[in-house]
User: What shape does this take?
Amino acid sequence: MRRNIRAAAQQAPIRALAERIVAGVGGKDRVSEARAVQAWVRSNIRYTRDPIGAELLKVPALLILPGHRQDDCDGHAQLVASLLASIGHPVRLVAVGFEAGRFAHVFAETLVSGRWLSVETTEPVGIGWQPARVVIRMLADVSSDAEPEIGFLKKIKKAVKKVGKVALKVAPVAAFAVAPGAAAALATVNQSKAQATQARTDLVNAQANAAAQAAAAQAAAVAPRSQPIAEFVGRYKLPLAVGGVGLAALLLTRRRAVA
Assistant: This one.
């Protein structure tokens, strides 16, 4: 669809039709241009469903010819996008689904003043309309063939995350139930985890002990050098006291003799 739109936007019949459609719009009113294109397509292209079990897609140049002016939402979206692109509008396609995994509708959007505005032509709605109860949504910029952006409704995102968490929790149990030998493998894994945890604990304890021993050795190295003298005095306190008294008496006796 994007390639069809890019090709059609450069074709003379599409450009000429777009010029006629917006001829009455004054100035650079992009919203009014989009509104004029919307009104023309809605009035001139009949909405007709595809055959059951088939997907038909008319290119815009064929869809504007008399006798071929009918198609479903994808034909409408292509024509709207090509008409707008031919007069310089950035455009993209938006596909929406109302249940998970299934797209049900597509329409074109144009970028005006930094806002993407829908240009829906299969329903009697205005510029900027958005469908309700959308579950899944895909955005495809027409200017490139880059991968479309797919987004989910917030409720769906939460549900997917919740299912993922539950799956991670029950995976070991499921493996135990369905895989031969899984119980022994699971036990081995758990034992290895326990051994690894114990090894980390032992390493931390060993590092703590080594640090304590190093601190004690450092403290002993910087202890005051007078510690051995203090220990000697403490051990021989009484003999030293007696010797000191005797020495004092001897000195006193000599002093008197001299006198």
About this structure: The radius of gyration is 46 Å. The longest strand covers residues 105-112.
